[in-house]
Amino acid sequence: MEQSEHKLIIIEYTEYPGPRYCDQGESSGEDFYHTQLNSAFLKAIKSNYKLKVVLDGTAGYASSFLDEAFGNLVYDFTLEKIKKHLVIISEEEPDWKKMITNETFIEWEQRRLNKKPPKKTTLHKEWSRFQNNEFNSKVWIQ
Amino acid sequence: MRKLKSKKYHKFRTAKLLRKRKQSVLKKKERNVLRNKPNSDRYDSSRPIKNKYTNRIDKQEISVGETFSLLKDPFNVLKLINTIEKRKIKNKHITNIHLELSHIKEIDIGAISILLSKVNQVSLGSKRIKFSGTFPIDGTCREFFNKSGFLDYMADISGNKFNKQSDNYLVRIGRDKTDNEKVGVHIKKAMKFITGSEVHYPPVFSVIQEMCSNSVEHSNKIGKNWLLGVNYSDAEDELEKRVTFTMTDMGFGILKTLKRKFATRIKETMANDPEILQRAFEKKYDSATKEVNRNKGLPLILDRTEKKYIKGLKVITNNVFLDLENPSLSKTLDLNLGGTFYCWEINLNCIELWNKASIN
User: Fold this and answer.
1) What ipTM was predicted for this assembly?
2) How far does the CA of residue B358 sit from the closest CA of chain A (Å)?
3) Taking the complete model, does pTM exceed 0.90, yes or no?
């Protein structure tokens, strides 16, 4: 039986997803990552289950919202960990799942290997990252 | 015997003659400007009005011709926008720009959107410049103009706000941030108009969010403003009902912020600007930010058009008129728009196609 803590449903965060960065508008991809996705994914890894992120039910998405949210996840946890512990559910718009899997994951993994960090437009609380085979939590980028 | 005049007298006389000549040249220019009829192809009747105490030009009157339609005659609309910009820059003491709209016989929401966007941009940039104007005399145009939402941002001579004429036409102004919830609410209202149900329509939300995000990120640093227009066209037949959306921003325009590699620019020397803009929508170039994970916005807009979830998408930016549904109708314009204008519509057919795709 599926447990509710295995799912992260974006409509519970916002019905109207916003732009890429916090300084561009409310409910941004950057904000969603730092307030919801980072901690939920860390919990999934430590408890050894798959986190299901459900995109359905919202008003729609800008590609930049999803790219920033899931891209940061790859940057902080590596593509290998994402493939093991993440499932994306998007029945209303399957193209988003394709974009995230075929483009975002690959592009951000490339950024991670090239050590090109993501931009932060506001000061965030500590967030987790997988580095040198361990998980640490701090303000990695200001 | 001729009287000898002093050097001082000659100097004074020369200066007087030069002054008279200058005044006569200025008066001639003013007469030529007034002679331009408002309904000619070159409507450009911009009349400077001097303050009689300071002798400075502090008011500019600009007359719009009979056709004020961005989609049918973009040249005249762009000429008005460029004239406003030119007068603002040239006359540093200007405090009032008067828009003479009484001669208009044809009008569309695109022209009104661009005009409001320009008025907003100028007002944001300089608080001393006020806009005033006249209504179209033609009954149909006047009704359309009143219901467009333009007057929601204006006041009458006494300084009182105009009463909201209609809920049908809504125009929303944003600045340096997106306005997700309000966009979503307007889309739900549009869906209720077409289908009877107040539900989301993700293709339009995505398209508007992409356009907004581009405007907020890439347009000019100071005085950013974007404008969303929603225009309802009712009909007895449900299939004929449609909602037209417009999105306007007064920034740099897509072509100016495009990042093309040097080798690509050499390869495309023979390409014209509409072709280059079309390729930008096809993801042939890098993002202005140079980041590898970017540049998904314009291709998404093209994708929704090709799948017919939105229809009739037209783009006017810099010197290009691009018809994404019929690229053969795209053309280079004689004038430049500093910014970007999008116009598209949805009807029941678009929504049914989307619903079918979602089920499958």
Assistant:
1) 0.94
2) 5
3) no
